[in-house]
């Protein structure tokens, strides 16, 4: 999913002062005509209440982004303070902070793959698409100092890899030879960079442990789920960078060719299809084509299994569409 400046119609309210922090996620405000405001930013979602009535709730950043400044809130929502327009301070190019101004564009997606060498194949597909690209593994230490090493290929045990595209070879060699470099230098050398990050961390992606702990084995259900891994694909670039736009277009073509979306919900006890979901705007439920093909070979194969908590517990399987 792309993130940049949120598409929010200006609220047009005038405040008596900048929103003030109230806890780790909330900001309080007061309009010049006496309305109490509450702004909440959590897990990428911005929620606005006026006099305890919700006015807005919208995702403006990926899950995991936690910091936002009062100036950003005013700028995003079209708020003034004592009649004065508030503009957020621009972040340095490729800063590790999140920029809602529209100067930066971010891509975040998450994908399920088979346990075998699919991640390695995906990374190799990306590097083959961009001749001369390099595989790097950065590690951030204190003071945002970065240690970086180059690798030839991704291994199953690797947590992440940064794919550097169009790198200046002399600057790259200098960075790799240094003990550490600044975060700014790292981002400067890797202006066009794609991160592939393993994100499952022992999570029960299949759902088997979850339903077994809730009595599924007592029902003699007929289902088969294959071991999986989950990876995030992340990149960010200056919105007006033409080369970055070309790289993003190529990356999207790879993602669309490698992964599928859309799930069918099946009652594991009756085999009846009880629902479909074709939407995945945040790219969190994508799965590889080979995982889809494996599932479609037999009717009892599923991407994952789980429970629908309606009036009574229903064990379900999720199949590709």
Short description:
The protein has 321 residues and is of the alpha+beta class.
Helix residue percentage: 10-25%
Helices, by number, come to 7
How large is the radius of gyration? 23 Å
Please, how many domains?
2
Q: Residue ranges: pLDDT <50 for 5 or more in a row?
A: none
Question: Strand count, sense and closure of the main sheet?
Answer: 10 strands, mixed
* Coarse morphology: flat
Structural class: alpha+beta
Which percent band covers the strand fraction? 35-45%
Give the CA-CA distance, first to last residue: 20 Å
Whole-number average pLDDT? Answer: 91
The total count of strands amounts to: 24
Task: Kindly list the characteristics that best describe this protein.
321 residues, alpha+beta, 10-stranded mixed beta sheet, 7 helices, 21% helix, 37% strand, flat
Summarize the SSE layout with pairings.
Elements: E1 2-3, E2 14-15, E3 20-22, E4 26-30, E5 36-42, E6 45-50, E7 53-59, H1 70-77, E8 80-81, E9 84-85, E10 104-114, H2 118-129, E11 134-140, E12 145-151, E13 160-165, H3 169-177, E14 181-182, H4 183-189, E15 192-198, H5 208-212, E16 224-225, E17 228-238, H6 242-258, E18 259-260, E19 263-267, E20 273-277, E21 286-288, H7 289-296, E22 301-302, E23 304-309, E24 313-320
Parallel strand pairs: 2-8, 10-21, 16-22
Antiparallel strand pairs: 1-10, 3-4, 4-5, 5-6, 6-7, 8-9, 10-17, 11-12, 11-13, 12-14, 13-15, 15-17, 18-21, 19-20, 19-24, 23-24
Structure description:
The protein has 321 residues and is of the alpha+beta class. The protein has 2 domains: 2-85, no CATH class; 104-320, no CATH class. Helices cover 21% and strands 37% of the residues. It has 7 helices and 24 strands. It has helices at 70-77, 118-129, 169-177, 183-189, 208-212, 242-258, 289-296, and strands spanning 2-3, 14-15, 20-22, 26-30, 36-42, 45-50, 53-59, 80-81, 84-85, 104-114, 134-140, 145-151, 160-165, 181-182, 192-198, 224-225, 228-238, 259-260, 263-267, 273-277, 286-288, 301-302, 304-309, 313-320. The strands form 5 sheets. Strands 1, 10, 11, 12, 13, 14, 15, 17, 18 and 21 form a 10-stranded mixed beta sheet that branches. The chain has a 5-stranded antiparallel beta sheet with strand order 3-4-5-6-7, with no helix packed on it. Strand 6 and strand 7 (53-59) form a beta hairpin. The chain is flat.
